[in-house]
Amino acid sequence: MTNLEKYRAAFKEAFEINDDAITDELAYDTIPEWDSVGHMRLMAALEEAFDIMLETEDILDFSSVAKGKEILLKYDVTI
Q: Could you list the residue range(s) of the whole structural domain that residue 30 is in?
């Protein structure tokens, strides 16, 4: 599984949404599933998928699919 597939799978798992909904424009609070609880489910799914521990600042800054790709670069995860 590629990093992109893992990344997309984390969103699907956390929010129970279809692939079509996962675009770079998808952002926090733009869908009902991405609320504070959903956000923490997503962070946990990403940490598990990439075997990383996100810093608090990065969890707070993770505001969209596109921003998440930038943040993961700090952890040597290229999407």
A: 3-73
Extract the tokens encoding 65: 């699919």
Sign of the Cα torsion 63, 46, 75, 8 reads negative
Distance CA 8, CA 2 (A): 10
Helices 65-73 and 36-50, packing angle to 10 deg: 40
pLDDT of res. 46:
98
CATH (domain of 20): 1.10.1200.10
d(CA 68, CA 65): 5
> What are phi and psi for residue 73, nearest 5 degrees?
-60, -35
Looking at residue 36, its pLDDT comes to 95
Q: What type of residue is 52?
A: I
